[in-house]
Each structure stands twice: as C-alpha cells, then as structure tokens.
Amino acid sequence: MKSYINFSKSPVQQEGFKPIVKLLGAEDNIEVSRYEVGKNSMFFVNPTLQVGTYEFYYIVSGKVLYNDKVYTANDFYEVYNIDEPFKIKALEDTVILFISSRAGEFSDALEFNENLVEQLEAIQAKDHYTFEHCRRVKRHVHDIGEYLNLSDGDIKNMVLAAYFHDVGKILIPDHILNKAGKLTKEEYDLMKTHVIHSETIIQENLGKEVSDILILHHERLDGSGYPKGVKDIPLQGRILAVVDSFDAMTTDRVYKKGMKKEEAIEELLSLNHQYDQEIVKILEKLVIKKA
Ligand SMILES: [Fe+2]
Q: The pTM is what?
C-alpha cells in the first residue's frame, strides 16, 4: 500500500495581477492548491468540470470583496455545483488555500483567463442556449475522453475546445441567432461563419491545439460538413461532432421541441456515414445506460 509524508517550503511569491496558482498536493479525489492574487485585481471562481465537485477556499492572508462584503484572513468560502462564474475582487495582496474533491480542477483553473470568461458572459447574455449547451457538451466530451483512456493533455484540449466551440456566435447578429423560423440560405451561410470566429478567438487565447479541435465540430465523415468539408477527421473532432449534435438534438429550442435521448442516439446511429459510430455507442453507454 502506498504511504508517504511530504514536507514542502511555501512556493516562491511572485508579483503580478493575474492570480498565480500553484498545485501543492493531489491524490485521486483531492487536490490542494494555493492562489495568490494581486491587490485590486479581479479573479473568478468558475463552474467545475464535473457535477458534484466540492471546493473549499480558505483565506490565508489578505482581503477580498464579494457581493459588497469584505472577507479577510481565516474566512473561507465553499463552492458546489455553481452554474456560472462569479467574480471576487482582491482588496489587498491575498493568498488563498484551495481544496477540491476532484483532481484536475487545478489545470482547468490555469486555462481560464478574464478575457475568455468575459466573452462567455457576453454570449450568455446574448444567447442563453449557447452557454448552457457548451457546458453540457464539455461534460460529455470529458467523460468520453476518460472512457477512451485518452491522455490528460488530450482530454484537457478537447474539453476546452468543447467549452468554447461556439464562442464565435458572439459575432453573429441576434436576429439570426435567435430566429424562431427556418434560416434563409444567406442567414445560414452567415451562421456557419461562427466556427471561423471561434477558431480565431480561441487560437489567440488558448492556442492552436485547442482551436484545431474546435474547428472540426461541424465537419462530417462523408465530407458534407463545414467549414472545409474534410472527411479525414481526427478523433477529438469526431467526439466533439457527435456530442455537439446529440446535445442540439435533445434540447428544447424556440422553434422545436428536443428529442428524447434514445431517439437522438438512434438517429445518430442511422447517420453512420456522418458520425463515428463507436463514439455514438460510447455516448449511449454513458448517458443512457450510465456505464
Ligand atoms: Fe457550432
């Protein structure tokens, strides 16, 4: 049986306005990190990747403002199943100890930055469906990645691609995004450009590894997809395409009622020239048979 005792020096403090996050320790179902936030900077607590992750934040030193209340050393906050990011302001240089009931939140936290969260919030204001849709797609993609034993790095890139695959919709006019009826050809062509916008935004913020996956989410195996009509789609892109379509099919929209999960899986299985059937079967196991 594994056993150990570890002593460590506190990580070297650095100056800066972005939170500095250091992983202090981790085991299967727990992770301990240290957040260091510069005076007057804003930071975010983001929804966790998986439902049911408990997070505990203990203020070691400094002072923060949340909801017009000031919290100081020895105060703490707990986070469980929040749906949207919330903002906290550091009134002084602040150090926070962070404990999570799931390993992996640390690396997720590192990937977020203020700019991206603001973009997501802007999308949410514009199109609530997209925001919720991206959160669900992110979760399924993560679970399929784990089921397939993909590497942590591959899962992380795929999850980020899933979370931000529709971020480009921020640049699509409201009347097209929320149109109740069928889109005209011109409107549909414009709608399709969201993929390119997403790619540009994410490549700048999170790099090409993530944007290269995201650009594939509307591509289909028979070449009938967009924006390029490629047939040879890498695994992460095939996963994202299946999950994105599944969620779109099963969600109620202004102009249509969502299908039952079973019906959507059946339809995806009938479209075997378009969707990777192995991925559809894994999704079926995870969401219907709850493997
Ligand atoms: Fe999309």
A: 0.66
**CA 196 to centroid of ligand 1, rounded, Å:** 10
CATH classification of 114-287 is 1.10.10.10, yes or no?
A: no
Q: What are 291's two structure tokens?
A: 């493997």
- Per-residue tokens: 8: 């460590």
> Which one is the CATH code of 20-106: 2.70.70.10, 2.60.120.10, 1.50.10.10, 2.60.40.780?
2.60.120.10
Taking the centre of ligand 1 as the mean of its atom positions, its distance from the CA of residue 58, in whole angstroms, is 39
* Average pLDDT per consecutive 10 residues, the chain (291 residues; last block may be shorter): 62 49 79 84 75 89 93 93 82 91 65 61 70 85 94 88 88 84 92 93 85 97 97 97 96 84 97 98 90 51
- Ligand 1 centre from 172 Cα, in Å? 12
Q: DSSP state, 16? A: -
In what helix (H) or strand (E) does residue 281 lie, and over which residues does it extend? Answer: helix 277-287
The tokens 């240089």 sit on which residue? 93
